[in-house]
Specification:
Signal peptide: 1-21
Shape: globular
Structural class: mainly alpha
Largest sheet: 3 strands, antiparallel
InterPro entries: DUF3347
Domain DUF3347: 33-121
Distance between the termini: 48 Å
Radius of gyration: 19 Å
Protein name: DUF3347 domain-containing protein
Mean pLDDT: 87
Number of strands: 3
Helix content: 55-70%
Order of helices and strands: HHHHHEEE
Keywords: Signal
């Protein structure tokens, strides 16, 4: 009877560890989304210094992703986007010119959206919004429009065009 009990406990332990290992793999890119939101929020406030700081943090995070922790499909998708994301994050981090940062944020957002569509960062909705004046998109954790391309000048200009993780 003790042997059966120990066997059941061992199997339960192994199953639990495998389950948590899979959860870790699916969320190992989640910090990138939070970092993206930090950059966007700084641009909404027209705070170029914070945008540069957060872009530097994103650059460290994107270059520090543990590829071995990713599922094969996620790794392939991430590797295709990594260099493009790093390029724009580097430009945002090295500039104090808000207009220049916003130019790179447009490409950054387009590339990040491709990654977000393919890799599940979160279970929460991710809203893809469009600015008709800039003809560019951005991602947001909320459906209320707060435009990072014009800040307070045109804060509510835009519309949500797609929602991920409905």
């Amino acid at each position: 009877m003790k042997k059966i009990f120990l066997l059941v406990v061992l199997m339960a332990t192994v199953s639990t560890q495998l389950l948590f290992a899979q959860d870790t793999k699916s969320t190992s890119l989640a910090p990138l989304l939070a970092s993206y939101y930090d950059i966007k929020d700084a641009l909404i406030k027209s705070n170029s210094a914070d945008a540069a700081t957060h872009a530097g943090d994103f650059l460290k995070a994107v270059n520090g992703v543990d590829m071995k922790s990713l599922a094969a499909a996620d790794m392939s998708t991430f590797m295709a986007a990594q260099e493009k994301l790093a390029f724009d994050a580097r430009h945002i981090s090295e500039s104090k010119d808000i207009a220049h940062q916003r130019e790179h944020f447009a490409n950054f957002s387009a590339n990040f959206f491709k990654l977000a569509k393919a890799v599940k960062f979160t279970d929460k909705p991710v809203y893809y919004a469009y600015c008709p004046m800039k003809k560019s998109y951005w991602l947001s954790a909320e459906d209320a429009i707060k435009n990072p391309y014009y800040g307070s000048q045109m804060l509510t200009c835009g519309k949500v065009t797609e929602t991920l993780n409905k």
